[in-house]
Every structure is written in C-alpha cells, then in structure tokens.
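Late entry, written up from scratch paper. The run itself happened at the end of the previous shift, but nothing got recorded in the book at the time, so transcribing now.
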Amino acid sequence: MRTPILIRNTMIASGLVLALAALPATGVLAQEAGANMHHASENRTLPGKAADAWITTKVKSEFATTKGIEATDISVTTVNGRVTLTGTVASAKEKLKAERVARHVKGVKAVDAIGLRVSDMPEK
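Output as recorded:
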C-alpha cells in the first residue's frame, strides 16, 4: 500500500522539477524575442536619430515659413533621412509644393507623400 503513494509522490516531484527547470528557458526565449524586436526598431545610432530629428524640425519650419503650405495639417516623420509626410492638404498643388520643399532640406534622402491626401473640400 505504501508503494503507490511513493510512486505518486515521486511522479509529482518529478513533474515539479521539470516544470521549474523549464521556467528559465521560457524566460530566456521570451527575453531574446523581445530584445530582437527592440533591436530591430532601435538599431539606429544616437547621431542618426538626432539627424532625423533635425531633418523633421527643419522640414516643419520650412513648411511654416513657405507661403501656400498649411503646415499645421501636415505631419512629418523622418527615419534614416527618409521623410514621410501625412495629413491633409487643400490641393494637389499644395501637396507637390510640400514634397518639393521637403526634398530640398539638407540631409533628406527621399520623400514619401503617399499618406498626404488632398482634401475633398473646395479651396478658399
């Protein structure tokens, strides 16, 4: 009668040991997956990020000082010198002007204005 209890207790203890042994491995795998995702999005250097921030600021200030561009309706993001414009503009002419202005900022490698859409509202 004592043997089944001993076998049962041994099985429970073995199961607990295996479960506890697996915990560090799953934690390491999860940590590595998170680090790889973080590394992919953060693999730019600090000077690269600073240059991108400078380009974004410069493009926004150029928009603010350029007649015919409503700067408050255009969002600007820069990654590795590639500028992305999103938002709404009043006309196709304003969209082209915004692309041209952004393209001429020092450090800009490319301009993507696919997310910059022309408003359905008639011009003023």
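The mean pLDDT is 80.
(Scratch paper discarded after transcription.)
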